[in-house]
Amino acid sequence: MTKGIANTFGAYQTYYETGLLAHESPSNISWIGSIQAFLLLFVGGLITGPIYDAGYLRGLVIAGSVSGVTGMMMTSICKEYWQVVLAQGVLVGCGSGCLLLPSVAVMPQYFTKRRAFATGIGAAGSSLGGVIYPIVFHELQPRIGFGWATRVIAFIMLGTLMIPILVMRARVFPSTRRPLFDKNILRSIPYDLFSLGEFFGFMGMYIPFYYVTSYSIAHNIANENLSFYLLTLLNVGSIFGRIVPNFFADVTGPLNITFPFILFCSIIAFCWTSVHSLGQMVVFCLSYGCFSGTFVSITGPALATLSNDMSLVGTHMGMSFTF
């Protein structure tokens, strides 16, 4: 649910522009997804850390599940812009944030080798959600309406979230509560530069996910039906981008993987302005999805290598994700 539902917002962006929120500008509508993505990283990076360390893993998973599913249910009955902001932006964003840290922190405890690869496989679940949810919304919305299409997605979320609620367990918790903020790590130039790179990277990374559908329709690259599947292709590419590079990251080191993949991701993003045909758009979506997926999945292992105190690696990740 965490980043998978965030990657789905492009389908809602297009629908809102032509339907429910047609009176709002595309920029105003995109704030809904931006708030959701911000709260995903802010809540998941800074706020939930001490709660997790205190042993409330199950509470975080339940709270995140309830908030996320409730947010989508409330979205299904929204009529006004501010209602969608509160439901899909704030409620879903906070719910996703509550689930982010548990999913990242628990998995490495079960692996002594190939941790980056295991993390990549786990992160690929978000991309899989980004493949399924837009198709569900696109196929059901014309048949049963916006409200029930969104409720179906909420029910899918509820069913899949029951699995971590029932089986997710941490093997160990920190012996002492970690601080919320560690000023000493800010003296590390590599950490500061990497966090700055994250800031600019995440600032622009979701733009294609939000606008590729509406862009393709506006520029007559694809019809309305086909353009929805371009968002799916972005997430398909992201599945490979989250798994394959992480396999090699265990050998070469995550930082050595991060730089070239982020460089190519930036180059591909600039190439978007030169896309004028469906074939070019398909190549763009698969390529951008792949390289941006690496950026999402490799940041955790990369930050772990930059931490100067492994007992505070959770704090350092939370600080970096927040900024």
UniProtKB/TrEMBL annotation:
Coiled coil: none annotated. One of its GO terms (cellular component) is membrane. Keywords: Membrane, Transmembrane, Transmembrane helix. It is found in: Membrane. It is a multi-pass membrane protein. Pfam families: MFS_1 (PF07690). The chain crosses the membrane at residues 29-49, 56-75, 81-104, 116-136, 148-168, 189-211, 226-245, 257-275, 281-304. Belongs to the major facilitator superfamily. Monocarboxylate porter (TC 2.A.1.13) family. This is Aspyridones efflux protein. The keyword Chaperone does not apply. One of its GO terms (molecular function) is transmembrane transporter activity.
